[in-house]
Design goal:
The chain is α/β, with parallel strands linked by helices. The chain is built from 12 helices and 10 strands.
Length: about 325
């Protein structure tokens, strides 16, 4: 039976993005697959008084079960209240690839969905995005489209090459689809191995500026925006992992983007690294430990700490919930 996100206490992204654009910050969009990740996200955002978008990929939906995810999102709203701050929380489908998947998420209480038609032709992308918009808007669910292709691998999303978003296409795409926000490709990429050693990591802020000129005030989204903190990479490698040459997007470039039209920044790989580093450290230092709470608890705490720092120093979203 279909359920409205409003019954779960969630919000869509419309008001979030309007405030972010007005005040020069980006709303954090953090992926989660389990309870500990969700706890860490909500704790960090309550602590820093930040709105948040809980992101679920199609892979996460298969892993965690769509019904359980619905109740976890509802629980996140109540959890935030118990922690003392009613922050705006959206539940968002990350990289939906079919109309059927997007419809299912709308019916299961998602307040926002992304339809990624970027691997189709331009006209097919428009047609597919428009179909999703027509269905989602009937339920006041917001829709994110995508123009341009990000390289890298993360969950079910994979591409060996990237294609920059063409600024001359964005106005036409937004007008014809009716989407509420637009994910663009300006040099970010999925996964932890975004750049090779010796490369100078740099996103194309000039393309972003041109897009902003063409659709002023329209919400822009950056995917693949993990900065891959080297302290976590070093810890993973120190305690038996193999994460050599994992390099991400410099945080100062993300902060510059967040001050412009970019009002949603997706971060997933950094969370995976933080948790993995904490778990590997625990196993190495206490090899006799077998209680999941004893290693998932520290992993959750490390994730909370990292996300709080992201909100304060990278996204600029800290303190925006009054």
């Amino acid at each position: 039976m279909a359920v409205s996100y409003k019954e779960l206490g969630l919000v869509n992204t419309r008001a979030m993005f309007a405030d972010a654009i007005k005040n020069g910050y980006a709303v954090p969009a953090y992926n989660f697959n389990n309870m500990e990740q969700m706890q860490a996200i909500i704790q960090a955002c309550v602590e820093t008084k930040s709105p948040v978008i809980l992101q679920v990929s199609s892979g996460a939906r298969k892993y965690a079960n769509q019904t359980l995810l619905r109740y976890m999102a509802q629980g996140a709203v109540q959890f935030a209240k118990e922690l003392g701050c009613e922050i705006p929380i959206a539940l968002h489908l990350d990289h939906g690839d079919t109309l059927e998947l997007c419809k299912s998420c709308v019916d299961y209480g998602f307040s926002s969905v992304m339809i990624d038609g970027s691997h189709h032709s331009y006209e097919e992308n428009i047609a597919l995005t428009r179909q999703v918009v027509e269905y989602a808007h009937k339920y006041d669910v917001t829709v994110e489209g995508e123009l341009g292709i990000l390289a890298g691998v993360e969950d079910d999303v994979s591409s060996e090459t990237h294609t920059y978003t063409q600024p001359e296409e964005v106005e036409d795409f937004v007008k014809k689809t009716g989407c509420d926000s637009l994910a663009i490709s300006i040099g970010t990429s999925h996964g932890a191995f975004k750049f090779k050693p010796g490369q100078n990591p740099e996103i194309r802020l000039d393309i972003l500026a041109e897009i902003e000129k063409r659709i002023p005030g329209f919400p822009i989204v950056l995917h693949g925006s993990s900065s891959v903190p080297q302290e976590y990479v070093d810890l993973i490698n120190k305690f038996g992992g193999k994460m050599e040459a994992a390099i991400g997007i410099p945080e100062e470039q993300l902060r510059a983007a967040a001050k412009s039209a970019v009002c949603k920044i997706n971060i997933d790989s950094d969370g995976r690294l933080a948790m993995t580093a904490a778990i590997r450290k625990m196993f190495a230092e206490q090899p006799g430990e077998f209680d999941p709470r004893k290693y998932l608890g520290p992993a959750r705490d490390e994730l909370r700490k990292m996300y709080a720092e992201k909100n304060k120093n990278v996204l600029g979203s800290a303190g925006t919930v009054k």
